[in-house]
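Subgroup meeting minutes
Present: P.N., E.W., G.H.
Scribe: E.W.

1. P.N. recapped why we're keeping a running log of single-chain structure predictions: easier to compare across weeks, and new members can see raw inputs and outputs side by side.
2. G.H. added today's entry (301 aa).
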Amino acid sequence: MTTLQLGLALPQYGALADPAAIAGFAASAEALGYASLWVGDRLLAPVAPSDRYPGGGTAERPYPPEFARFVDPFVALTVAASATKTVRLGSSTLSGPLYSPVLLARTATSLDRLSGGRLDLGLGLSWLRDEYTAAGVPWRGRGARLDELIEVLRTIWTADPAGHHSGRWEIPDSRFDLRPMQRPHPPVLVGGMSDAALRRVGRLADGWLPTRLPADVLGRMWAVVTESAERAGRDPGRLRRVLRLNPVPGSACASVADVATQLKEAVAEGYREALVDLHYLAGDVGQALDLADELFTAVQR
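Output recorded in log:
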């Protein structure tokens, strides 16, 4: 099989959410041969949520109950960076509009330097309006806010002096001498499957973070990304695709064997990077590592 850069979600939520276990998990995953480690971002688990989880929420179960226990993504990445040497460290995804760009730029820069230039900053919009309310950020206009956030991050990372002046953010021209290890800056990946999100990837991002869907559906989405990139004068051949798989008991992807099969199919479809979230298959971190070992072996066959 063509080489696949395979990643894992760090133990961050639900039964696996133990900050003290992250370092050991990260080091063990790197030793097994995994190429990347990833975090997600969940701020709230409302009792009466404004929206249902788009991955299968119902009136009785509006979102996975595991979301009520969630380790901060930056803490998880910092611990993983300190415990590893080679794996890339990414977010799939941070809820971008909830963050101040100047604070996010500082944190991402610090993480990139701590890790020796291994950060992939994945950004998305979140599906839960309650999170925006709690963070004091307007839900309306969130797409434009993410676009501008990406612009401001790149300005802070590359300009000297750097500033930003708009109706949304006023950042006085300033010196930012702490620069990312990666030049010109860490890759900015964008998640999302809507037409607007796909066009954002093509216009602005360094890559796309899709979730596993049938090949023809993902193919049509990728065509939107490439068209948008070409319209923006960018080379779509330089864009990365990091496919996410979320195996869940009772679904079409419910076991290590199912995941391995889907990963091999994804390679045949042209994917060279993927990440697997084992939170719903494992009852504890030890079991998650056992499954990770089994999966890595199965994918190599």
